[in-house]
Write a structure and sequence with these properties.
Elements (H helix, E strand, L loop, with lengths): L4 E4 L6 E3 L1 H16 L7 H14 L8 H12 L5 H14 L4 E3 L3 H11 L1 E6 L5 H7 L8 E4 H4 L6 H11 L6 E5 L2 H9 L3 E5 L18 E3 L10
Parallel strand pairs: 1-4, 1-6, 4-5, 6-7, 7-8
Antiparallel strand pairs: 2-3
Helix pairs in contact: 1-4, 2-3
């Protein structure tokens, strides 16, 4: 059966975190929090922040205000409306440069969209939809499946099946593209073809089989066209 659909991961497949932006953002968050009585170190804050992101990535909280409430509770700080607004404004200022697209991503997605139905499937933190919009990516995808919106994360088979349902495609008609083997292991379980992009930092993280052999493999997202 010929290929009709391409399901694509986001982080370290299409885009990567700007580490300098993230570092500055976290420092500015702590600066604001100290005005409201927070006394712990930046390292302590980062640990709680990261744990909060991970704990609610399956849909327990659906909006950024809800996220701030959970974070402030974890930090032991009263969730005052003025504080939540300051945190929200800071996030908005940093959002456009939080992620950087890999080279040629826009032209690659443009070419793929002419031939295939496209879906973005991401394990992600609250508010990624805003970032996708700021990066100009939403126009390329027929559906966008975010873990915190659907309540499941890769490699859970349900997240791939939800993307296929929305695309109206069968697994054997589609390929899943990711920088992480663990994502591809889940995709293969439902019958999707798999493509590994070896350009990120997480290829073997959480992989059940570090020697997993994808159907296709390349070094950079810019090479994907050569294999499809």
């Amino acid at each position: 059966m010929s290929l009709r659909g391409v399901l694509i991961d986001f982080g370290y497949t299409l885009a990567y975190l700007d580490k300098e932006n993230i570092r500055d953002y976290r420092k500015e968050l702590v600066f604001i929090l100290k005005e409201y009585g927070y006394t712990a170190t930046l390292d302590d804050f980062v640990s709680i922040l990261d744990n909060t992101y991970r704990s609610i990535s399956k849909g327990e909280v659906r909006d950024i205000h809800g996220f701030w409430k959970v974070l402030l509770k974890n930090l032991g700080i009263l969730d005052r409306p003025t504080l939540i607004q300051e945190l929200t404004d800071l996030r908005k200022n940093h959002m456009p440069t939080r992620f950087r697209l890999y080279d040629n991503v826009i032209s690659i997605l443009s070419a793929l969209k002419k031939k295939y139905k496209l879906a973005l499937v991401s394990n992600c933190f609250i508010g990624l939809s805003d970032i996708l919009e700021s990066l100009g990516l939403t126009r390329f995808f027929e559906c966008i499946i975010l873990s915190y919106e659907v309540g499941v994360m890769k490699p859970d088979r349900r997240i791939y099946l939800e993307a296929l349902r929305r695309l109206k495609l069968e697994p054997e008609e589609s390929v899943f593209v990711s920088d992480a083997i663990s994502d591809l292991e889940g995709a293969r379980e439902v019958g999707l073809k798999t493509m590994l992009i070896c350009q990120g930092e997480r290829t073997n993280q959480r992989a059940k089989d570090p020697n997993f052999k994808p159907d296709f493999q390349c070094k950079h997202i810019s090479e994907i066209i050569d294999y499809l």
